[in-house]
Fold:
Amino acid sequence: MRLDKSKAALIAVFALVIVCAGSFFAVRSFNSRVKPKAAVTVTSMAPIEVSDPTEAPTDATLPTFETAEPLDTVPLSQAPDDAESDRFTTFPISTTESTTSFTLPTEDTTAYVPPAAPDTTADESQAQETIKRAAVFSDGFLGYQFNKEGNYYFTTSDPWQRNFGFNVLYDLGAPFVNFYYDTVRCKFRYQNKDWLIQFWKGQYGLVFLGAEIGVYTKPLDRDQAHYDAAADEDMLYMSMSFYRKGVERASRDYDKYWWCTAFVPGTLDSFRDRSELSMKSRITLKTAEMRDLFCASLEKNGFKKDKDFSVSGKDVYFSWG
Structure:
């Protein structure tokens, strides 16, 4: 079922108000019940082994590593075949060297926790319990469900958000509802449609960290830069893993999606710095031609083949962070 635009807009505004209110009361609830513990200072540590994510240390026990400078802010492209990058961040940042693909440490690394930083293990644990009990996130309401085995939230295959597609105004308005993320838009023209494959990672509201991959299309004769959520026949097979400070927090199985998402309770050390987050994905394109068009768009966004992404058949393996 598809809603007309006026009804869809009203539902979207109403849903955003509910999400913001839910986030506010959830954060106030667990912050009021948890007292900060003593700070811990770490001078050095051995490489992190994450062969089994279930045994990996929690976020709170990890030191903060020195990371690459944030991604460049560049003009948004308006056409699918232009040569400009379509990388976007919700905060203005300096023009510095682009980040490389995410890898785990291979050498001993000197790191530290700021002297005044509290132990946040109890905070995050309490956040998880608070959110699990919150009715607004239960039973698939608002299109979200909870994966008990992986301990993360995700969107269903046909949520209400599918009615609204994608418009760049959504990203521009994100900070007003406490969404702080980085995003990359890959645009190309294939089989008489304009395609958009978009990636996000960052802070969602006041209690969630997460990552997303979205697939969108629009007809060639549509002048407005508004994309529709991919129809069933245009959905793509993909998988995604989401990391914080090198530790896997959520993983979506290889399956057919138009919107592949994962959200976990947590808060960035700084909303302005999303470098502690990373994601890895595998996307299977329909044909070799479509694969090449997608790869060309990744390169327009500053990513390097065999460094940030690789190709195998119709599959593209992409690391970001």
About this structure: The two ends are 37 Å apart (CA to CA). The chain has one domain: 5-320. The chain has four helices and 16 strands.
